[in-house]
Specification:
The protein is mostly helical. It is 87% helix and 0% strand. Helix 1 crosses helix 2. It is rod-shaped and about 85 Å long.
Length: 76
């Protein structure tokens, strides 16, 4: 191989290595983002459960469904 061919192969190898590192980094970022989304769904489910319990408790006092929802949303 000539010196010119070695330089071309060397630069291509460095470019492919950089591409691999970038791909790996983007996959790690995607995994972290998906984990954060999954955890936020868990907290939304808990909040919905608490809200439903609030509505049921307020309805037990004789308030209408719409009044109970308004009360649990922070209304008067």
């Amino acid at each position: 191989m000539t010196d010119e061919n070695k330089k071309n192969c060397s630069s291509k190898g460095k470019a492919m290595f950089a591409y691999g590192i970038i791909q790996l980094g983007s996959q790690v970022i995607s995994a972290v983002a998906l984990s954060a989304i999954a955890l936020s769904f868990c907290s939304i489910k808990k909040e919905a459960t608490v809200f439903n319990e609030c509505v049921e408790d307020v309805q037990a006092t004789g308030t209408s469904s719409s009044g109970a929802v308004r009360f649990c949303n922070g209304g008067n």
